[in-house]
Amino acid sequence: MTRYSLFSLAAKAVSGHRGWQRAWRDAAPKAAYDVIIIGGGGHGLATAYYLAKVHGITNVALVEKGWIGGGNAGRNTTIIRSNYMLPGNEPFYEWSMKLWEGLEQELNYNAMVSQRGVLNLAHTDAQRDGYARRGNAMRLHGVEAELLDLDAVRRHAPFLNFDNARFPIKAGLLQGRGGTARHDAVNWGYARAASALGVDIIQNCAVTGFLTDAGGAITGVETSRGPIRAGKVGMSVAGHSSQVAAMADLRLPIESHALQAFVSEALKPIIPGVITFGAGHFYISQSDKGGLVFGGDIDGYNSYAQRGNMPTVEDVCEGGMALMPMIGRARLLRSWGGIMDMTMDGSPIIDHAPIPGLYLNAGWCYGGFKATPAAGWCFAHLLATDAPHETATAYRLDRFATGHLIDEKGQGAQPNLH
Amino acid sequence: MRIPCPYCGSRDIGEFVYRGDASPVRPAADGAEAAMFAYVYLRDNPMGRHEEHWYHTQGCRNWLVVTRDTLTHEIPSARLAAPLNAGDAV
Ligand SMILES: Cc1cc2nc3c(=O)[nH]c(=O)nc-3n(C[C@H](O)[C@H](O)[C@H](O)COP(=O)(O)OP(=O)(O)OC[C@H]3O[C@@H](n4cnc5c(N)ncnc54)[C@H](O)[C@@H]3O)c2cc1C
Ligand SMILES: [Zn+2]
């Protein structure tokens, strides 16, 4: 792998940008590997990379049914943050944020990580108190958070609809280190770095079943390109976890739901950082190309359709108009949907499956993009050592049975939380 | 998406509230804990035909069991949930 640098860029510019190598090898499946990762989203790619880099396990296949980054890894609204409250979550997301902060140097790839700040707005006194508590919980975990009063919010984003009669803005919780990253570049950067360490990235290869030994342990996968054996199999298939788990007769506490995203025509810079509406569900940032990137709630019914319906489009746009009426004049360019695992407590699962040889990284709900580096790190740790990483000990599959839910919203068993 | 309410006819999805998979059946209160766990948490989550509860909030306010394809959103049938659950009400 040739390193990307200012010099390599200048040299290639002189020769008309001909002669760049492809970023990762287009591998064909071998008969057997030490580890197979199912799913070439950000999580699978990061897992493969850290297996090779941190644990020295390079005989790894990453098996993707379509093309890498064609799922949620290339469909999300790219928000990264570590502003969680519960002890089961906050250390994990902060570990992810630390990995984001060093990611580009680590991968020698411009992932456009931009710590432009994430501001959560509060619209009632109770919500402000709730954010004060959340900010304090973050600080107790060593993560900086700033509670902005009304004047400070006005300075930060003067264009907001402060005097909305129904949803007046009272305060905001700012995480200055939060922000956005370029989702495709994250996938490509991990793929390139993993491939360079020897990982086989195998695209257009759908897993259709599992190979098992006489005792029922998983010993590999059946795929559309033939059987592949492995010592361990990790699944990291985002919205399709129930589907792949069913191939091993495993039922999960998960429903698959569609989340939509929207992007407007390119505008001059108007939105500072990420801003979220606390009275409805609406979050927005502005891409470096100028498009307003925004989203809201899931459509709300089980779906594998990778597209959403009109009532949610309307709801998201109403949220935007209530919060920042100025964006009403921007034209919508595109909208799309992605399918996400919604768990019953809104938190993910990184754990052994109750079947030997199979490992789960699933249930990422609304928020798995920000988790990409740490999910990869922790899943690789689990696969390599058979023990959970210290920041991911709460993400157990059996927590639903034992009552140790990680319910940030405090609302109980509903597959619509985050 | 439009749902064919047996009472009101074909109506826009915006009139309905979704309540999830209609197939889990609540186990007896004195039953095994494992059965209650499965009822509350575990789902088949199929890709394809799915029987699910929808409430016609903005219409007749009946609970429906709608059969829908989770990949194509095709809805071959919808029926009133009440007769199905009549025994539960006591
Ligand atoms: C519209 C939208 C907006 C979002 N916004 C944010 C955000 O702002 N911030 C945030 O933190 N998170 C966000 N998320 C969530 C985040 O995108 C996901 O949680 C995360 O990307 C999931 O991990 P992944 O990247 O590995 O998933 P994916 O990219 O979906 O990877 C899973 C892969 O598995 C493959 N696969 C499935 N079945 C098989 C099979 N049988 N065989 C082989 N391969 C298979 C799929 O093809 C897919 O490529 C958003 C999600 C959506 C849909
Ligand atoms: Zn009706």
- Largest Cβ-defined interface: A-B, 24 and 24 residues
Please work out how many helical segments of chain B DSSP would assign. 2
Class by helix and strand content of chain B?
alpha+beta
The assigned CATH architecture of chain B is 2-Layer Sandwich
Count of the domains of chain B:
1
Please state the average pLDDT score of chain B.
91
Largest sheet of chain B: 4 strands, antiparallel
Along the chain, the helix and strand elements of chain B come as EEEHEEEH
Strand segment tally of chain A: 18
| Count of individual helical segments of chain A | 10
Helix content of chain B: 10-25%
Within CATH, the superfamily of chain B carries the name: Folate-binding superfamily
Q: Uncertain spans of chain B, ≥5 residues at pLDDT below 50?
A: none
Gap from first CA to last CA of chain A: 39 Å
User: What is the radius of gyration of chain B computed over CA atoms, rounded to a whole number of angstroms?
Assistant: 14 Å
- Proportion of residues in extended strands of chain A: 25-35%
Q: What composes the largest sheet of chain A?
A: 8 strands, mixed
- End-to-end gap of chain B: 34 Å
Look at the structure and give the CATH class of chain B: Alpha Beta
Radius of gyration of chain A: 21 Å
